Protein 1
Amino acid sequence: MNTPPPPGGERHGTRAVALPPACALAGSLALSFAATHQNTPPTAPAPSAAGTITPADAPPSQPAGPPPTPTALDIPDIGLHADLDPLTTDGNGVLQPPDRPDRAGWYTTAATWQSPLVLTGHVDYPHTGPAVFYHLGDLRPGQRVTLTTTDHHNRTYTVDAVRSYAKDDFPTQQVYGPTSTPQLRLITCGDWDDQAHAYRANTIAFATLTADGGDG
């Protein structure tokens, strides 16, 4: 399967414009939303310099079989609990954003542990304010992310890095490329531009599976 471009999509007139994950709805409706919420923009990491992200220590053995479907996400350090919905791509291979501000979506390019699991969510939402990933930029390396899956296990991922990338510098290979250990990516928008009424960047958290299992 081809690696998809930065997720999200928006249509202005008849021209489709690819946008980063979770930005599509916020971007298209920012004019009506900015006046009520963007006075208190979410935290975003500083712009990222090029460099290697060092994964946390993975469990001694790889999980057996294909990855189960994720159903819920918990990040206690930022007070986050969210149900997860599968995401799809459109006819151009562009990943579509989640439909609701209180839920995140998941996507993977292949059903193997060597294909990173990508979670996207809105940072804020018209008329409702902060959304599911509003505090994603507050995450720090070493903090834990727990996924509940259809096999009723809780799988713990440890955050390796949280970085900000300009929309025209989306790190496609780092997000979607194959990995030697089970990896997780969490993505939302960042760097709100009041003048442009748009987000200029993506906030991306990179995490490694460090504890596999235990009934949820």
Protein 2
Amino acid sequence: MALGRLLEGFITILVGVNLIPSVADQISTATSGNVTGSSATILNLVTLFFALGIMVAGVNIAVGGLQDVGLI
């Protein structure tokens, strides 16, 4: 059971990392339009927050698996 949760965490990170270029391409397409000022800055940060969210989700799943085993 714990090994499954560890694998889920790593798979979550792997899928998220593979989706980052697609998200970055969509953001660059959106910013090439009529987005200016602070809206453009916030829109450029979406890729960063997506990466942080994927990383936090994967680490939380993996830590939960380690807690099930009793290593943490």
Protein 3
Amino acid sequence: MPHLTWQKSSYSTGGEGECIELAAAPPSGHIHLRESDHPTTIATTTPHALAALIGVIKSGKSGLPARR
């Protein structure tokens, strides 16, 4: 995998652990996600699929509590 620049959410507390990190992978357009506690486990998706997932989570229709 090429060198990726990982970014944490602005909502992250800045400490280590419990953070989802994202990295864009041009030119493919894929988005890579990882848990900061397990940086060698990487999931790959498309921007469209990630946006759909975030939308479902925010709506509360996922069965998970919506973040306020």
Protein 4
Amino acid sequence: MKTCDIRGAGPDKSTPNDPGKGRPGDGGGSGGNDTAIATRTSPKTKKPSMYKVLLLNDDYTPMEFVVRILEAIFHKTGEDATRIMLHVHQKGVGVCGVYTYDIAETKVAQVVDIARRSEHPLQCTMEKE
């Protein structure tokens, strides 16, 4: 059986390391390389907008209920939940956490749902950070 070496075979006999020489008969000097390098830029991923979930003070919702909401929905420790509840009570509004839009929206809905089922007027909203 015979082996065949195909390196260097083909119509382009120019050497890649010699850009001044083109193919024979092409006028020479132009390099003869009409190749372009196509680059694909990957799109930069933008960080999602973040939203603050806010609790609003009212005169009717028990403080203990607010603490339980903060522990159950926002996974706050008892100490953090009490601190946030007191801030809401004294300042009228307080931040429960900062989340992406979908998560913030879900947490607001959970708070409102539990408050309504428990017959408390607790209000919860979200705003872009």
